[in-house]
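Tokens in:
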């Protein structure tokens, strides 16, 4: 993954903190929620990715269902 935080003397001083926070939020989402495609599809058949300025972006028309997990156990 590439993040745009600048480089050299102009690099963002909070870039390491920001990346750490992104990872924590992502881990929390994965632990607390279930994700699945809105339309059932085979594992090998998924929407195509496309690139914007050399960054891969998920297909904007792909629909994903997100459900909170039962964490009371």
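Residues out:
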């Amino acid at each position: 993954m590439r993040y745009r935080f600048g480089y050299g003397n102009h690099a963002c001083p909070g870039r390491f903190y920001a990346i750490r926070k992104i990872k924590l939020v992502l881990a929390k989402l994965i632990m607390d929620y279930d994700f699945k495609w809105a339309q059932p599809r085979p594992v090998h058949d998924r929407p195509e990715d496309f690139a914007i300025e050399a960054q891969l972006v998920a297909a904007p028309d792909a629909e994903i269902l997100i459900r909170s997990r039962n964490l009371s156990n």
